[in-house]
Every structure is written in C-alpha cells, then in structure tokens.
Write a structure and sequence with these properties.
binds alpha-D-psicofuranose; binds manganese (II) ion; 3-stranded parallel sheet; TIM Barrel; globular; 2 domains; 16 helices; about 425 residues; alpha/beta
Length: about 425
C-alpha cells in the first residue's frame, strides 16, 4: 500500500484519457458516509450459538468508543445507529449519550425501535390481533420519535418481525389494516424534518406470511403515509436472484429510496460482510445511486444524495471491529468503481443498442483497480492508507480485550 504512488499516477492517466474528472471523483469519495450499527459491536450469533468475542462491547459507551475508532481509521463512518431499548441510557439520559458520542467525534444516526424482543410480541406488534399489544408497540415507537431530537437524529428506522407461521393463523387483510392504522399514527408523531424508513423482509421470524414482505408493500404504505416516509433496502432481505439494483433504480426515480442496510446474504439474513459474496452486485447498486446522484434529474439526484447508508451486520466468527472497518472499505471500493463509470460513453452505446459494448464499459469500471486512488484519498484525508492494518497495529484490540474481558452480555448506556 505504501508504494501506491506510481500506480496512482498511471490510474489518473488512464481515467483522464476516458474523460473522467479524477478530482471530482476524489471529492465525492471524501464525502461518502457509512453509518455503523451499535449492535454490530456487541456479541451476536446464530440461533444455534452466540460465540463470545474477547473485548466485544457490552455497553453503549463501549459501542460508541468502538464506532469512534472505526471512524478514526476510515474517516467515512461518522455516525452510529442505535437500537432502543438495547441502547437505552440509565435515567433516560439521552442528552448525555448524545454528548458522549460528540466528544468522541461521532454522532448518533438512525433510531431503531425494537418491537420484537418482548414476550408480548409473540404474535406481532402493530399487526397483533390484540389491541392492547398494538398500543404497547405504538407507545414504544412514539417514544422513539420523542427520543430522536434528544439524540439529534432525523431518521426513524422501522423493522417489524410481524407475520404468521401458519395458514389460517390470522386474517391477512386484518393484519394489513392494523399495520396501516399503526403506521399512520407513528407518522403523525414524527418530529418535523425527519424521515421514517420502512424496512421490508420476505421471511423470518415469521415463515408463512410477513406483514411487510417486499419493497412494493413498503413503497405502497410510504405513498399513503406521505413524503416523510421512504423505503429502506436491507440487502439480506430478498429471495435469491432478485435484482436489487432494479428495485433501487425504481425507488430513486420515485423519490422513495430512504436508506440501506448493507450486508451480504448467502442463504439467509444479514450477517456477512457487505460485498464479500457478490462484489459485482454491490457495485451495480452503487452504479444506480451514483448515476442518479450526478444526473440532471432533480428528484433522482436529491433522493440519491439523501440516502442513509448503514451497515446492518453482526459478526459472529470473524471479530468485531476489523470486519466493520473492512465492510466500510468494501462500500468505499464499490462506490469508487461506480464513480469511474464513463457515463456519457455508456449512454451513447446504450442508445445505439450496442449490447456487448455497454456491458464491457460497465464491467471495465468494475474491473478497475481503484485501490491506489483510495490510498491517495485516505492520505489526503489524514486517515491510514490501510485502515485494517492500522487498526491491527494500533493496540486498540489488545486494550479492549484486557479492559473488557469476554462477556456474553450486551447492555445499554450506563
Ligand atoms: C432484521 O433482520 C434487521 O435487519 C432489522 O433491521 C433489525 O433492526 C436488525 O436486523 C437488527 O436485528
Ligand atoms: Mn436490517
């Protein structure tokens, strides 16, 4: 990595010859922002076993300390998503929590209510047939709306474990109506200038039906709710073979793409490093976002520029901090590759119906080794050129192992 300079010069020549403004690409890379999840710093597992990782965070302070370290190593991860009540502070001191983050050079990002972990939610939350449970869920989500300004957050991120396991278990239309009514009430309680992101998932923990199974359901409800409601795309929440970049393109064009939960799914949900299974897919998703952000279309451009990019990953066997840093870097690399797509040339061959040439142009950008460019950008930003190596050499991991030990718990802000 230290010897990247000659490769960087050669890359600049190559990109410039293709008509790409390298300084503009670097400026865009400096502005990239990937939010990390507080829960990704704690121990987690599969339903069969949670392996405790030495030094893994158990309190929200530790999660914020770790997130600050990730930001220090990468320069592009300045915010952390929180999950309530996992991150509920003692005495509800949200101001103190916000200040704690800011003192470490980061901010709190999306607020995620949790209406799935209590026994009462066995049959669902907003979709539950019991009005008392619906109300309990509603109260918690509205409480999260009140917490948002205290944490200076403008994103409410909603995911529901609601659904049914057996045909006949509940009325599908009844659940739809209960959900709509609940979401409408939440929407009315949103802080001004904030956004509600509605996440979908086609399976798990309910297996016969899921109340928000796909982007279409989420989109339909966002349309009904109003402009503050947008769809959140979690990469792990689709069936095999689904063309996620097409969903992304559609939602951008309609002004309703609000955020991402990045991860990579091999067979089920979201616990693998983003871009590790299918880097081409991640590139194609970024290609849609970048193409829109830098286009002349006002709605698509504003929407793409306002997307909340978040990781939603739990690392079970590969450590905690280094994989999170690696995930941020995977997003950075995919974004860089999307920035070197020669768009004018691509549009020309698309228009001319030159199918193979269009594929070759797009694939050419994907195949570009952007690592020297990223090394240069990092150096200019004053962060390590190789963030994972720098993290390993920093002594942070040894320090937290000694100070924190190995614990199974994952607690809140003390
Ligand atoms: C559910 O699978 C999910 O993707 C939701 O975003 C949750 O909030 C998150 O994982 C953490 O459980
Ligand atoms: Mn998610």
């Amino acid at each position: 990595m230290d010897n990247y300079k000659a490769a960087y010069e050669a890359l600049v020549d190559n990109l410039t010859a293709q008509g790409i403004d390298v300084e503009a690409v670097k400026a865009a890379l400096r502005q990239q922002h990937i939010e990390t999840p507080s829960w990704g710093y704690a121990n987690s597992g599969t339903r069969f076993k949670a392996f405790a990782w030495p030094g893994a965070a158990t309190t929200t302070q530790q999660k914020l300390d770790d997130a600050a370290m990730v930001h220090k190593m990468t320069g592009i991860a300045p915010s952390v998503a929180v999950h309530i009540p996992w991150d509920r502070p003692a005495d509800d001191d949200y101001d103190g929590m916000c200040q704690y983050a800011e003192e470490r050079g980061i901010v709190i990002g999306a607020v995620n209510p949790n209406v799935f972990q209590d026994d009462e939610y066995k049959l669902g939350s907003l979709g539950n047939p019991d009005p008392a449970i619906q109300e309990r869920a509603l109260d918690h989500i509205i409480e999260c709306c009140e917490i948002m300004p205290k944490l200076k957050s403008d994103v409410l991120s909603l995911w529901f474990a609601d659904g049914t396991n057996y045909a006949g278990q509940d009325s599908l239309r009844g659940r739809k109506r209960r959900f709509e009514a609940g979401l409408e009430l939440v929407y009315k309680n949103m802080p001004a200038n904030s956004r509600m992101l509605v996440e979908y998932k086609f399976f798990e923990p309910a297996f016969y039906s899921t109340d928000i199974p796909d982007w279409g359901t989420s989109y339909a409800w966002c349309l009904k709710l109003g402009p503050q409601a947008q769809v959140l795309v979690d990469l792990g929440h689709h069936a095999q073979g689904v063309n996620i970049e097409q969903i992304v393109a559609f939602l951008i064009d309609e002004g309703r793409l609000g955020g991402f939960h990045f991860n990579n799914r091999k067979y089920a949900d979201d616990d693998l490093l983003v871009g590790s299974v299918n880097p081409f897919e991640l590139f194609l998703i970024y290609n849609e976002l970048t193409g829109a952000a830098f286009s002349d279309d006002a709605v698509a451009s504003a929407t793409a520029k306002n997307v909340a990019y978040m990781l939603d990953q739990c690392h079970n066997i590969e450590g905690k901090m280094a994989p999170i840093i690696q995930s941020v870097l995977n997003c950075q690399e995919a974004y860089a590759k999307s920035l070197v797509v020669p768009r004018a040339k691509l549009a020309q061959v698309q228009q001319a119906g030159e199918v193979l040439e269009a594929y070759r142009i797009l694939n050419g950008a994907f195949s570009t080794d952007v690592r020297p460019l990223l090394a240069k950008v990092r150096e200019e930003m004053g962060v390590p050129v190789d963030p994972v190596a720098a993290y390993r050499a920093s002594g942070y991991e040894a320090k937290i192992r000694t100070e924190r030990g190995t614990a199974n718990a994952s607690g809140g802000f003390q």
